[in-house]
């Protein structure tokens, strides 16, 4: 099974980027094997996370977990500036303490929601101060640069977690209802055989219209999106310790060889290796939970 869905593998424990884009492009829905902090600074951009789409404003800050599908759509050729920071779980755990779990803002909320806040000018300046410290020290070979990078990153994560603890921001969501309902239908029937004909019957719409709208707003074909969702379910089941055969059929695959091939292509390792890695992580990476009130 071919797929234009992709799993973007982040190699370093900390990947800091501050790009300025002056041309129009859009990305397909994808995931990383790392957490992501995304700060929007300027441009005309729509940011998609799972079932939601946000028209971005300067000072919008998103936190994205490895499980959340996301993409950007640059609407025009206006200069697009943002800061993205990708963090491996092991790295954030090393910065955390027994009393301060710096992964809280990523993990302790429902997938696809509660992951955006809007910073006022004072908060934005605070965040930019720490991102400048990271930017200056991350690529430096000077003595102590790594320690300075880690210290700045810890300070930044503390701020972000504090802001998300008291998040009451209600963002504008412009995801078309048809696309959202299609995603919800797929989620509810992910272990079953899903066809365009079923969707057309469910929504009383032409199957071509559904397919085109879905591709326009996700950058993916329905086939690729369904495959990606099944792979994510398989990853969860593997983490829970189910056998690979059970995972294959309980995540909606009807052919074992196709499951192994598709999983390995998208995730980058076989289901067996993924299970071993996740079980090892769970043994060494447990942190106390932080409740948000």
UniProtKB/TrEMBL annotation:
Superkingdom, natural source: Bacteria
Keywords attached to this entry: DNA-binding, Transcription, Transcription regulation
Coiled coil: none
Pfam families to which the protein is assigned, alphabetical: AraC_binding (PF02311), HTH_18 (PF12833)
SMART domains: HTH_ARAC
Domain HTH araC/xylS-type: 180-277
Protein name per UniProt: Helix-turn-helix transcriptional regulator
């Amino acid at each position: 099974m071919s797929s234009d869905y992709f799993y973007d593998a982040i190699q370093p424990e900390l990947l800091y980027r501050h790009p300025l884009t002056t041309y129009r492009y859009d990305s397909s829905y994808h995931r990383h094997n790392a957490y992501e902090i995304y700060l929007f600074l300027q441009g005309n951009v729509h940011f998609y996370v799972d079932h939601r789409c946000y028209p971005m404003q300067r000072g919008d800050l998103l936190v994205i977990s490895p499980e959340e599908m996301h993409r950007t759509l640059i609407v025009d050729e206006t200069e697009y500036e943002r800061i993205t920071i990708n963090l491996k779980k092991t790295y954030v755990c090393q910065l955390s303490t027994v009393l301060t779990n710096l992964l809280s803002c990523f993990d302790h909320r429902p997938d696809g929601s509660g992951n955006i806040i809007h910073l006022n000018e004072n908060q934005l300046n605070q965040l930019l101060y720490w991102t400048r410290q990271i930017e200056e020290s991350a690529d430096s070979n000077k003595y102590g640069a790594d320690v300075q990078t880690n210290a700045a990153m810890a300070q930044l994560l503390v701020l972000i977690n504090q802001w998300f603890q008291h998040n009451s921001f209600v963002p504008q969501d412009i995801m078309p209802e048809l696309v959202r309902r299609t995603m919800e239908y797929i989620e509810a029937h992910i272990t079953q055989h899903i066809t365009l004909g079923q969707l057309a019957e469910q929504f009383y719409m032409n199957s071509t219209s559904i397919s085109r709208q879905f591709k326009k707003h996700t950058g993916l074909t329905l086939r690729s999106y369904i495959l990606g969702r099944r792979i994510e379910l398989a990853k969860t089941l593997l983490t829970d310790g189910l056998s690979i055969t059970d995972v294959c059929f309980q995540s909606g695959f009807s052919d074992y060889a196709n499951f192994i091939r598709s999983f390995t292509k998208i995730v980058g390792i076989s289901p067996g290796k993924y299970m071993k890695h996740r079980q090892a992580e769970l043994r060494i990476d447990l942190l106390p939970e932080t409740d948000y009130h």
